[in-house]
């Protein structure tokens, strides 16, 4: 019996020794290989290789595998402490399938690893331009088409262009269109009786297709435009709704005529039995007429109050001279207060214990405009949640099974911050978060308005954290950007990768100096948006990482400018157009009558469209933009949210995954799992769940919109309409125009 017990004891000792040895050697921490998580046909796959430690140079072979068959590979030699990149050219003929990246190390270090990759069929962007978006029967459809790679270099191979009518009949087909510039052009004269409706242009390039619609219709160009001017928003305390209707010819002169205005709500009370529209008749003087309506009349239409209800105003203006009638529409919305607070969804959802947390708030009028004049200060209150320690000395956030009401927390309020609201309304607030904090709840107050924002702690088994901050506003291609690197422990060196347009564009290992910012050279390939993932490896093998999104200006290497010699010209006068671009550049010119754009637009290629296409190559796992779309503030052209946006996540694994890369390594890339809790009467274990509430109008605990609506302040004045123009005497007519071309310029030229 004693012998059996001795054997059992010896077995336990051996198992403990074996387990300790296994744990001590579980993470060799010798290499980290980072790759974009997707392959695209015809595009390179840049794979970053970092050898952490090796006695001799290491030969690394990266192989792209499809359906268990090797497609292509690349080999390079790397030394410890010197990151590098292997470029794998994905074949243009690649098709959908199961892809993976296999890495093999030999020489000074032997390893083998493999990770799955996604397949994305899009390898280039196709753009189609027409001279107009709508055509009459008998007119000629003019089009240009080009395809560009993510680096904006044109595809110079053959293209196929097809045109289908509204009945889906193929009307025309051009095969193997090809030009040295990469831009192909074609014309299609329409018959006198073509099928009316939406037609389609289909362009096929190297297996990829792009479609664009245009309309064919019997139309008359609108001679004037009707505009309804309303307040950008209304308050429920307002007594009257005031607006105006204006009508101007496309050349700027005021229209004389009469008008009819119809006011209606977007919803009506089921108890309301009166008319659903309020009709007013107007007479335009100098192209304008004002109207008013009592808010009390609108309130009768909806008995539950006008808060957040919309008023829709439709106007019809009839020109006195010709009897032509055209329409205009506008709407406004009722609110209880003229101001609002927004917590952008780009505000970080997690914090690094022991480091500074930075959040964002936007204070504005209900229509998004900045508040002009005296502004109250913004008040930020923070409450920190700490996990209690249960009797066995282990914090309640440790994964384990137990009964009862655990986990339990204690709470502590931080000092209130009172911040000035700048002219643009954007406020960033900081907080040095204590090391033991597990959650921070922010209460943001502006006058009587309150919003809530809660963030959770970033997870690390060693409680080691890294933070990267962009210090340079609006980085520009061709210059350097400064980044600040902070950590909760002393760090000598870090490695960073920068990803843009779906690929790794920069890899470097740098020394961390708390007194000096990290200098990064910004290149055009990083525009318009980039992501940085930065990390170091602890002695126990844990990878400590952070990541960041930031915008970059300067996506276009070729700077093009266009000028006219006159800002205004009379019919029959000549206007000179001058343009400049890099030598050898192809330039396509288009000028169209403004009246056509009043009917339909969308035929042109814009900078916003090109930049949006570059964004489609991003390998991000989820959107990181401030208001659910592109990072645009207001809606002004080319205005952007320049603040750097941390990439969301709760652990090091999320930092890489949400950046859009895969990691092949023998280090510990920590992935947090929530504690498993048994709660009576449910016996099966389930993860502790704390919902992430919406960033606007909720405290994250399901309490919904927070804070009572305060008394409405004075509403801003209505945006002034265009000043009246004095009518001028008409000049004597010398010529009668019989041909009115709608497309004035459609030229293809090469800059010498």
Distance between the termini: 100 Å
The unreliable regions are 18-25, 621-642, 679-740
SSE-based structural type = mainly beta
CATH topology of the domain at 224-339: Immunoglobulin-like
Mean pLDDT reading: 83
Overall 3D form: globular
Beta-strand percent range: 35-45%
Largest sheet: 6 strands, mixed
Radius of gyration: 32 Å
Task: Describe the fold and architecture.
It is a single chain. By secondary structure, this protein is mostly beta strands. Among the domains are: 31-119, Immunoglobulin-like, CATH 2.60.40.2950; 125-219, Macroglobulin (MG2) domain (Immunoglobulin-like, Sandwich), CATH 2.60.40.1930; 224-339, Sandwich (Immunoglobulin-like); 561-615, no CATH class. Helices cover 7% and strands 43% of the residues. The chain has 5 helices and 48 strands. Strands 26, 28, 29, 30, 32 and 33 form a 6-stranded mixed β-sheet that branches. A hairpin with a 5-residue loop joins strand 39 (529-537) and strand 40 (543-551). The longest helix has 23 residues, at 2-24. The protein is globular and about 90 Å long. GO terms for molecular function: endopeptidase inhibitor activity. Residues 466-599 form the Alpha-2-macroglobulin bait region domain. This is CD109 antigen-like isoform X1. Residues 1-26 form the signal peptide. Residues 689-729 are annotated as: Disordered.
């Amino acid at each position: 019996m004693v012998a059996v017990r001795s054997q059992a004891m010896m077995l336990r000792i051996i198992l403990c020794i074996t387990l300790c040895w296994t744990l001590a050697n579980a993470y060799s921490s010798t290499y980290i290989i980072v790759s974009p998580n997707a392959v695209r046909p015809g595009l390179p796959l840049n794979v970053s290789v970092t050898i952490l430690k090796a006695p001799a140079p290491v030969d690394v072979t990266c192989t792209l595998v499809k359906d268990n068959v090797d497609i292509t590979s690349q080999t390079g030699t790397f030394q410890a402490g010197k990151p590098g990149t292997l470029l794998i050219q994905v074949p243009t003929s690649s098709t959908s399938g199961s892809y993976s990246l296999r890495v093999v190390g030999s020489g000074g270090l032997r390893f083998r690893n493999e990770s799955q990759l996604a397949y994305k069929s899009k390898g280039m962007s196709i753009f189609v331009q027409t001279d107009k978006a709508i055509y009459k029967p008998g007119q000629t459809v003019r089009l240009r088409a080009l395809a560009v790679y993510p680096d904006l270099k044109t595809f110079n191979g053959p293209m196929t262009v097809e045109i289908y009518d509204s009945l889906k009949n193929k009307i025309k087909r051009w095969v193997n269109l090809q030009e040295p510039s990469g831009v192909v052009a074609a014309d299609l004269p329409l018959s006198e009786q073509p099928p009316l409706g939406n037609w389609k242009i289909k362009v096929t390039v190297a297996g990829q297709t792009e479609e664009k619609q245009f309309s064919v219709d019997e139309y008359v160009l609108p001679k004037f435009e009707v505009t309804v001017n309303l307040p950008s928003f209304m308050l429920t305390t307002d007594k009257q709704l005031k607006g105006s209707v204006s009508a101007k010819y496309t050349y700027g002169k005021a229209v004389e005529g009469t008008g009819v205005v119809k006011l209606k709500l977007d919803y009506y009370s089921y108890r309301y039995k009166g008319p659903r529209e309020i009709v007013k008749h107007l007479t335009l003087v100098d192209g304008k007429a004002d109207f008013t309506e009592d808010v009390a009349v609108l309130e009768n239409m909806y008995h539950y109050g006008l808060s957040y209800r919309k008023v829709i105003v439709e106007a019809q203006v009839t020109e006195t001279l010709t009897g032509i009638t055209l329409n205009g529409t506008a709407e406004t919305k009722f609110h209880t207060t003229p101001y609002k607070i927004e917590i952008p969804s780009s505000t970080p959802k997690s914090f690094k214990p022991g480091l500074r947390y930075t959040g964002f708030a936007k204070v504005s009028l209900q229509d998004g405009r900045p508040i002009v004049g005296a502004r109250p200060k913004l008040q930020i209150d923070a409450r920190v949640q700490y996990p209690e320690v249960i009797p066995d000395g282990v914090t309640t956030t440790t994964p384990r099974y137990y009964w009862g009401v655990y986990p339990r927390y204690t709470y502590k309020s931080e000092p209130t911050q009172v911040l000035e609201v700048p002219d643009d309304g954007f406020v960033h607030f900081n907080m040095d978060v204590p090391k033991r904090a597990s959650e921070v709840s922010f209460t943001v107050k502006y006058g009587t308005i309150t919003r809530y924002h809660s963030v959770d702690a970033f997870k690390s088994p060693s409680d080691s954290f890294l933070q990267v901050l962009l210090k340079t506003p609006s980085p520009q291609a061709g210059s350097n950007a400064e980044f600040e690197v902070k950590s909760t422990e002393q760090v000598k060196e870090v490695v960073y990768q920068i990803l843009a347009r779906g690929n790794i564009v920069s890899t470097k290992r740098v020394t961390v100096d708390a007194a000096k910012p990290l200098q990064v050279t910004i290149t055009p390939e990083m525009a318009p948006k980039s992501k940085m993932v930065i990390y170091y490896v602890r002695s126990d093998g844990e990878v400590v990482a952070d990541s960041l999104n930031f915008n970059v200006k300067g996506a276009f290497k070729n700077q093009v400018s266009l000028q006219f010699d006159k800002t205004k010209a009379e019919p029959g006068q000549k206007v000179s157009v001058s343009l400049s671009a890099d030598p050898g550049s192809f330039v396509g010119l288009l000028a169209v009558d403004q009246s056509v754009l009043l009917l339909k637009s969308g035929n042109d290629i814009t900078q916003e469209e090109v930049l949006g296409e570059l964004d489609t190559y991003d390998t991000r796992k989820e959107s990181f933009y401030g208001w659910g779309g592109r990072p645009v503030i207001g809606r002004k052209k080319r205005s952007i949210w320049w603040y750097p946006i941390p990439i969301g996540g709760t652990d090091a694994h999320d930092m890489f995954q949400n950046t859009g890369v895969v990691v092949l390594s023998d280090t510990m890339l920590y992935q947090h799992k929530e504690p498993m809790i048994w709660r009576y009467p449910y016996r099966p274990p389930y993860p502790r769940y704390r919902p992430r509430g919406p960033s606007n109008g909720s405290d994250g605990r399901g309490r919904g919109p927070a804070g009572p609506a305060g008394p409405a302040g004075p509403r801003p004045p209505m945006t002034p309409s265009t000043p009246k123009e004095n009518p001028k005497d008409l000049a004597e007519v010398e010529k009668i125009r019989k041909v009115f071309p709608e497309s004035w310029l459609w030229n293809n030229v090469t800059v010498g």
